[in-house]
Amino acid sequence: MANIRKAEWVKGTVGTADGAVVFTRSFAAKKEVKQATLEVSALGIYAAELNGARVGDFIFAPGWTAYATRVQTQTYDVSAQIAKKNKLAITLGRGWKALSRAHEGAEYLGYRETALIAALEIVYADGEKELILTDDSWQCEESPIVYNHIYHGETYDAQFQADLQRPALVVEHDKYLAVPQQGEIIREQERLPALALIQTPAGETVIDFGQNLTGYVEFTVKGKAGDTAIIKHAEVLDENGNFYTANLRSAKTQVTFICDGKKQTYKPQMTFYGFRYIQLIDWPDAVKLENFTAIAVHSDMKRTGWFDCGDKLVNQLFHNIVWGQKGNFLDVPTDCPQRDERLGWTGDAQVFVRAAAYNYDVSRFFRKWLADLRADQNEDGSVPHVIPNVIGGGGSAAWSDAATICPWQMYLAYGDLDILNRQYISMENWVTYMKEHSRRYLWVKGGHFGDWLSLEDKKSRQGNTDQKLIATAYYYYSTSLFVKAGKLLGKDMSEYEALCENIAAAFRKRYMKDGRMKQRSQTACCLALFFGLTDNAAETAAQLAELVRAAGHLTTGFVGTPYLQHALSDNGYADVAYDLLLRKEFPSWLYPVTMGATTIWERWDSMRPDGTMQDPGMTSFNHYAYGAVGDWLYGVVAGIQPDENKPGYEHIYFRPLPDARLGYANAKLDTAHGMIEAGWKYENGKFAFRFVVPESSTATFVWQGKETKLKAGTHEFVK
Fold first, then answer.
1. Cβ neighbours of residue 498 under 8 Å, at least 6 residues apart?
2. Rounded to 5 degrees, what angle do the CA atoms 308, 592, 241 make?
3. Does 651-718 match 4-143+158-181 at the fold level?
4. What is the CATH architecture of 651-718?
5. Residue 341 annotated among the catalytic residues of the structure
6. Dihedrals phi, psi of 331, to nearest 5 degrees
7. What are phi and psi of 627, to 5 degrees?
8. Catalytic one among 104, 113, 235, 602?
């Protein structure tokens, strides 16, 4: 880091803002090289080459951060790539910088302009060191990537020859914004072959890869010089079997390749797409499936969790949850990867964080994102709706609560006390904001997203659950988590403990009567139960079960859904929760599966039974929020739960609530203490359980109110 801060930020002086720019520096190695280290950071996204070979495998480096305060720096060992004569070339594209806000600019650097900073240190065999730093001695030239945009795509001109080089322009920008790499790098992951070539009723040439994914297509094409080959991307086909892009809104999501007369293999470098299908437009070559491969990209998280059961549709649901996470955990937890959005919505992140931590090791991923949340938090303590903050606003209940919920879940999953310490002030500021927007311990000021996309009010995306009820419930929940965090850090939390008691009393007085919610809302009951606000859980749970049975299905949106199954199964209604899990008709988790979904949908009916679509302005087919049910599959169906007194699975609770309709269920969880396994099988009218406790853990098996202590090893029970 010391070296890169000796360098200068530079920007290009050729081409247009739409195209990528290549910064170059030629140099000679004076003698035998012992080691060479390259540090790079950028406002935008870069790809570095040394002597024609790619440096590293970080896709879309340096990632996306709160540009006003921090930009990650990558360090590469390039010793093996150094020759006697060398050329370092770094291509810089717009990336997420094209979405940045005006206040993130700097003098002589427009707020959506890109910039580069780099330092190459060469250590010779005799100990001499040489530094090559970005400054006005670097040259810049136009790139064959003549257009690049996160939403609209990329245009590559294979005929392009740079005919103009100019010195890079040094810009005044804070060098201390460059910080060491904190999150996971983004890498190419799975490669998926093209499965089917389709001629649609509208005459379109379409290829199906069989899986909705985030990434791009590698393709091979040969056309005459000047021929243009275009690929467009889509998630679904419409009710007539035609290519459907209305839900992408303004995003063009295309690749344009200008041929040079030679056979070429290409894949986009400066953008990504959310898609299952591609449409070929003006394709100048014979269309062969073997010439097309979809490449899935996401943050390089370690897979830690697996689940399967005796129901094929539930297994496909789990598959969809995992692919939804992969598609949306691309450096930040995005809401969706396909339309003109792809933003780090805080509400989506907090409802899914528990499921995320089962599926993958997301400790580094969330540590980095929470650092950006802390950096972008508004002065009044409210948290912006999206992190990094590119749209302004903030302060909505259940969205801003990511400030407390996400750090707490990281602590439970990984025993990471440091994350609570790092985020403590952010948590405190958020609780203070809620306190200042409350009256008589009820949060009554400000606007909220409500129970987003619930089914309780078809006329409003915000549902009909009282927004002030939701806000007050989260006021209590976040404050209670803040109390727990503070106590773990050795702080006096008596003031906030009293605040919790007062919020709970005010909530019950205003919104409850005799243990029941005054508003007959599934979401209201879920919040009261899961957050511990009710003083009569049996009565509140009975009301919730009655509401579900009366409707015949769930009616919850983004706020209620993550807690619905827990609120039922934790309070004696596991059978009702399983009814909801196994329901195949709309609305349900399995309805999209019956419609061929391979990821989680944004709406319960993003596609209707007749194949028509919901509102194209708000219909994503890869939107992980409702995949929060994944943590219930792990934690209740299979029964693996952390212990907040010994987090990170130092002590494990096995609390399975099996249902014979599934036949069997198994889960595995790879933790810092080793592999945990839990499973059961229904046979001969009984449940046979099997648990594996890793060597450095202990566990407690809870069954029908009785606890059995378990040491490391394999344990089997028949109940």
1. none
2. 125
3. no
4. Sandwich (2.60)
5. yes
6. 70, -40
7. -70, 0
8. 602
The CATH number assigned to the domain with range 305-638 reads 1.50.10.10
Residues 92-127: tens digit of each pLDDT: 999 999 887 654 444 445 667 899 999 999 999 999
To which H or E segment does residue 562 belong? helix 561-569
Strand locations in 441-598 (E): 442-443, 512-513, 516-517
Residue with tokens 């899986």: 211
Tokens of 311: 């129901």
Distances (CA, A) of 459 to 164, 236, 520: 57, 26, 18
Among candidate residues 104, 142, 341, 428, the one labeled active-site is 341
CATH class of 187-299: mainly beta
- Going from N- to C-terminal start, the domains of the chain cover 4-143+158-181, 187-299, 305-638, 651-718
Radius of gyration of the chain (CA): 27
Q: Which amino acid is at 10?
A: V
> Is 602 an active-site residue?
yes
Q: pLDDT, tens digit, for every residue of 277-332? A: 999 999 999 999 999 999 999 999 999 999 999 999 999 999 999 999 999 999 99
* CATH-assigned architecture of domain 4-143+158-181: Sandwich (2.60)
Q: What is the pTM of this model?
A: 0.97
Say how far apart CA 109 and CA 46 lie, in whole Å.
Answer: 17
Q: State which amino acid sits at residue 213.
A: L
Q: Taking residues 406-420, what's their average pLDDT?
A: 98
